[in-house]
Design goal:
Strand content: 25-35%
Largest sheet: 5 strands, parallel
Radius of gyration: 20 Å
Mean pLDDT: 90
Number of helices: 8
Shape: elongated
Structural class: alpha/beta
Helix content: 25-40%
Strand order of the largest sheet: 2-1-3-4-5
Number of strands: 15
Distance between the termini: 49 Å
Order of helices and strands: EHEHEHEHEHHEEEEEHEEEEEH
Length: about 250
């Protein structure tokens, strides 16, 4: 894969180049840039397969660089020292990111996934979804979350998710279409991610869309009755918090 590194710290660029040379022989660095403006020119000139992109840089940040390109035809791996700076949008679109300092195992995994997607030669729907999220920060109704399963990456509106269930290190998404999507990520990764979309962690094993909650049942220690008559347990320590949240509904 032809790759580029865009980062405002020269030491970070050199370190990543060394790691790639030693551990990712399928990656060839064809250009580097220290800011978004130079990075944009280099992307248009070299047409890379993969871009390692810092998020926070002086002037334009990494997101603004992507938004300035009409149709990015490459894979992106974000590299950032700021684990909360825009990472929620990146996670929402299931795009790979690396936190500084870079862990070799995580680098190799991210590169392998990028290589498989490049070989498939499909359009980068995850990147398109990220750009849409960035353009519609104030309007959540059109946002979609990328759910990578074994066969595909599904883009689903949070409003179409009834609840999520933890199954060991997997999460099962129950949709209004009566589909069940099994995703190879633990439930906690979606807890904070979906909080702003009306989801409540009612139990260690369940994350529920508050807009599908019909009532709180008091018998047997308490549970949630959903619009489809499914009952979900409420953990003892969550009862009062959930009651207060539902009063704001």
């Amino acid at each position: 894969m032809k790759a580029m590194i865009i980062d405002d710290e020269p030491n970070n660029i050199r370190n990543l180049e060394l790691l790639l040379k030693e551990h990712c022989s399928n990656v060839q660095i064809i250009a580097t840039a220290l800011n978004a403006s130079d990075g944009r020119e280099a992307i248009l000139l070299h047409q890379p397969d993969l871009v390692f992109l810092d998020i926070q840089m002086p002037g334009k940040n990494g997101f603004e660089l992507l938004q300035s390109l009409s149709s990015p035809g490459f894979e992106v791996i974000f590299v950032t020292g700021f684990d909360k700076y825009g990472i929620q949008a990146v996670k929402f679109s299931a795009i790979d990111y690396l936190l500084k300092p870079i862990v070799v195992a995580e680098l190799k995994t991210a590169v392998d996934k990028a290589a498989s997607r490049t070989d498939a030669k499909h359009r980068n729907s995850q990147l398109e979804n990220l750009l849409l999220l960035l353009q519609q920060k104030s309007s959540r109704k059109d946002h979609k979350i990328a759910l990578p399963s074994a066969k595909e990456i599904r883009f689903v509106s949070p409003a179409d998710i009834i609840y999520c269930e933890a199954k060991n290190n997997y999460t099962v998404f129950y949709l209004i279409t009566q589909e069940k999507l099994v995703i190879a990520k633990p439930l906690y990764e979606y807890d904070e991610l979906l909080e702003d979309y009306g989801f409540i962690r009612c139990h260690n094993s369940y994350l529920v869309n508050r807009y599908f909650i019909k009532s709180i049942l008091k018998e047997d220690g308490g549970s949630l009755l959903l619009e489809n008559n499914i009952q979900l347990p409420i953990s003892r320590q969550k009862k009062e918090q959930i009651r207060q949240l539902l009063l704001k509904k």
